[in-house]
Structures are given as C-alpha cells and as structure tokens.
Design goal:
heterodimer, A: 77% helix, globular, B: alpha+beta, six-stranded antiparallel barrel, 40% helix
Chain lengths: 162, 331
C-alpha cells in the first residue's frame, strides 16, 4: 500500500466515522446503517489482522464511551470483527457484489450478536427481537451502504479492483 | 520465511487476545470506574464526535418540530388577526355605549345583519323590531353618523335602507358656513360607488374639501347635527343654477355591525350635542383672515358663476359629469 492509498483509506475511514455520528442521529431509525462497522471492515481488509483488531478495539472504545454502561462490549465485538475481516480479505477482494454485501451483512450481524451477549442489558425477549429482527435489518442496510461505499472507493482510488 | 510468517501470525493473535482481554476488563470494571474511563474519552478524543452527534440530533429535532412550529405560527397569526377584529369591535361598542349614554332615552340598540343578496345590497336586517320599540321610518345612526332609515318593521326584527340606497335622502348643511343642500347617494363609477353627494347647493355658496356635512333638521325626519360626511370636491353637472359636491360618508356600510334606532319621541328633544363638533384650532387672527378670504372668494365665485351661465347660454351644450376639486380662492 503506497502513501496515497494509505491517505485515501484514512480519509475514507474518517468520513465514515463522521457519517456515523451525523447521518445516524439525523435519520433516527431503529434499524440504522452502522458506518463504523463499514469503516472497520473497509480498512481491516487492507491491514494485518493484529492491526485490524487494534483498530477495531479503538473504534469500539470510541463508540462505547458514549454508552458507559456497556463500555468494552463494542470494543470487544469490533476487535473480533476487524480481526476476522482481515483474515477473510480474500473474500472481500473478490469481484462479486453479492459476496461483498454478504460480508458486510455478516460483519454487522456478528458485531451486534457479540455486543448483545457481552452487554446483557436487555430482557431475554427483547434481546431475541433485537438479535433476530432489528440486527438483521440493520445488517441489511449496512450491507447495502457498505457495497456502495466499497464500489465508490474502488472506482475513485483503487481502480484495479473496480 | 515460514518462521517469519508464523511469528507475524502469532503477533496478530497476541494483539487480538490483548484487545479482547482489555475489552473484557472494561466490561467488568465497577460502574464508577467505567464512567470515569468513558468520561476521559468523551472529554478528549471523542469530543469532536460528540459535537457532531449533538449537531445532528439538533438538526433532526429541528426537522421534526418544523411542522409543529408552522402550525403553531399559523394559529398565532390567526389569533392575532382575530384580536385585531376584537379590538375594532370593542372600540365600536365603546363608542356605541358612549352614544347611548348621551341619548339616555328614546333609542333601541340593534345588531346589523348584512344579507348581501344580489341587487339588495343597500338593505340590512336589524335584530330589533316592533317589540323593542322600533317604528317605521325611524332613523338609524352609528357613533360615526347617519346609517339609514327603517323601512319595514316586524315583531322581532326590521329592515332598514342604508345611505347607499337610491331612495335615501337627508337634508343637510355644512358645519360653520351653514350651506344647505340635500344629501343622496352618488351614482358614479365603480370607484365612486360608496360616496354621497350634496345637491342643490346655491351657486353663490362654495365648500372647501374636508368640510363636515351634518343633517340640518329640515324636513323633520333627521334631527339636526348628525354627521353625514365630509366634502371631497365639487362635481360638474348640467344644472347651472346649483352646485353639487361629492361627500365622503361618515359611516362605511361594511363596518356597521351595531346601530342605534332613534325612536320618534326622541327626535323632539334633539340629538345635536351628542356628536363631537369639529375643533377649530386656528387662532382668531387666522380665522378673521380666513373669513375675509371666504367673502372675497364668494364674490369671485359669484362673478365666475355669472360668466359661466352666460357662456353656457351661448354655447348651449351639456358638459360631461366629473369630479373636480374647487380652486383655492385668491387671497
């Protein structure tokens, strides 16, 4: 990865973090797009697994600081997702949009499941509804947005993979 | 090479384990310590993110509240408009009460119902009739002046013609110079639809714009002193022996909501002092010179009338009707 691509990746990551804290509150949907997961997945596939886990940990920690009751849950989930994404980089570099979408979908859903298990804040029924209904919905939206972001990124800065 | 890859892979795993352990440690921290860690993060690296989120949420609230605010603003505007109407109504009613106190007896208060049917816009229904003491041909007045006359009386209501009715007539005079004439509706164009005209004014008399016209009491129907309107200007007619003036009415028909029907027994007592007289604030010297100017202008008007009559007799043509403002008399 040359410095230009590295800088572009950092900018893309920052834009996605910004979107996470502007678009999400603005829309206010219950099943919302998780731009943080997209950002971590987008960057993780271009990093070593250890670095991806560390990036996930730090991103999750930032996210958790706004909900102190579940501090650490997001960091743990994001670490696992980042590490796994880096291991599965071969999948994400495939030129198949459906596979990309599936990758983002699974990434977000796994994140939510780990988060819900670690946080343990909600009653069981609500937890089930969240894991079985709202998380997949949110994951689907995140997958759609993730595919769009990945294609846009490749078309502008990574043309050999577009 | 393979050893290097394995070492690298082991380092990745170690980092992951460290991250997981750190996260796990954070989750099992006491809540006070967790709050402290979160607080430190919020006040340092997360602060810009927090500001972004706050702005976004404010934007969302603004969007959600926009419709509600628009509705509230509409309601307030409507209430404000109604308040203005109520203020005007209150003002009218206060003046009506003041007029009623002046009259003391011999009047009936009635509300005006504007029917506004096509071809009958000069007639209104009053909410007082025979049972309240209204009689036929009673005069109808408002705090501003003459409104019209009762034409038909029923038990609980009555009909009255407004001054806009073609049959309306009132004997009138100017305040101050006592120039006499008959006031009737001015049948002019659309713009002059709701005006009066003072007809039959002797040619030797002239009136300045703004002169107040009141009922003269001649004829016995309308007592003297009720405001009728103010002079706007002279209208040229084919009648060479008398002047006609267009008069702006004291009462606008569309504004009339409550009126007083003056009963016949009250007419004997008179109502002249109930309406305020126009205040002449000019000093005596000015009034004297104005009177002299009036006499000079009157002489000039007589001379002009003579020449005009002679000219008309010679030309024997009929000039078109139009409103003209009288010229200022030379001082």
């Amino acid at each position: 990865m040359n410095w230009r691509r590295g800088a572009a990746l950092v900018v893309a990551f920052l834009i996605l973090v910004t979107l996470h804290y502007t678009i999400r509150p603005l829309l206010g949907w219950r099943a919302s797009i998780d731009f943080l997961v997209i950002a971590v997945l987008l960057v993780s596939v271009r990093m070593r697994p250890g670095a991806a886990a560390l990036l996930g940990f730090l991103t999750g920690l930032v996210s958790d600081s706004l909900t102190p009751a579940t501090l650490g849950a997001g960091a743990l989930a994001m670490s696992v997702v980042g590490f796994a994404a880096s291991w599965l980089r071969a999948v994400i570099f495939a030129d198949n949009v459906v596979l990309h979408a599936f990758f983002f979908f699974i990434g977000k859903w796994v994140f939510d499941l780990i988060y819900l298990i670690i946080a343990r804040g909600a009653p069981p029924l609500e937890l089930l509804a969240q894991a079985g209904v709202w998380s997949p919905l949110s994951a689907a939206l995140t997958a759609a947005a993730g595919v769009f972001v990945m294609l846009a990124y490749r078309m502008t800065l990574d043309p050999q993979h577009a | 090479m393979a050893r290097a890859v394995r070492a690298s892979s082991r380092a990745d795993t170690v980092i992951l384990v460290a991250c997981v352990l750190a996260s796990g440690l954070l989750t099992i921290l006491p809540s006070a310590a967790r709050d402290q860690v979160a607080s430190v993060l919020r006040e340092t690296v997360v602060q810009p993110v927090l500001a972004l989120q706050r702005t976004a949420e404010r934007g969302r609230n603004a969007i959600l509240e926009r419709d509600g605010l628009a509705k509230r603003l509409d309601s307030l505007t409507l209430a404000s408009a109604r308040l203005r109407e109520l203020e005007l109504e209150n003002q009218r009613l206060r003046r009506m009460v003041g007029l009623g106190e002046g009259l003391r007896t011999g009047f009936v208060v009635a509300e005006v119902v504007h029917t506004q049917s096509l071809g009958d816009e000069h007639t209104v229904t009053l909410t007082a009739g025979r049972n309240q003491g209204v009689t036929q041909r009673s005069i109808v007045v408002a705090p501003d002046g003459v409104v019209g006359m009762v034409t038909t009386v029923d038990a609980g209501s009555s009909l009255a013609i407004l001054w806009t009715h073609p049959d309306f007539r009132v004997s009138a005079q100017s305040v101050g110079s006592n120039v006499l004439g008959i006031v009737r509706p001015h049948i002019g164009g659309e713009g002059e639809r709701y005006l009066l005209e003072l007809t039959g004014v002797a040619f030797r008399d002239s009136l300045n714009p703004g002169t107040l016209i009141v009922s003269s009491g001649l004829g016995g129907r309308y007592p003297a002193g009720i405001p009728v309107g103010t002079v706007i200007g002279e209208v040229k007619t084919s009648e060479g022996w008398a002047r006609t003036y267009v008069v702006r009415p004291a009462v606008k028909p569309q504004d009339v909501t409550t009126v007083m029907v003056v009963q016949p027994e009250r007419l004997g007592v008179g109502v002249a002092n109930l309406w305020p007289k126009p205040v002449d604030s000019a000093p005596p010297q000015v009034r004297d010179s104005a009177a002299r100017a009036d006499s000079v202008s009157r002489a000039a008007a007589v001379a002009k009338a003579d020449s005009l009559v002679n000219a008309r007799l010679r030309a024997a043509d009929t000039p078109k009707s139009s409103i003209i403002a009288p010229k200022k008399p030379p001082l």
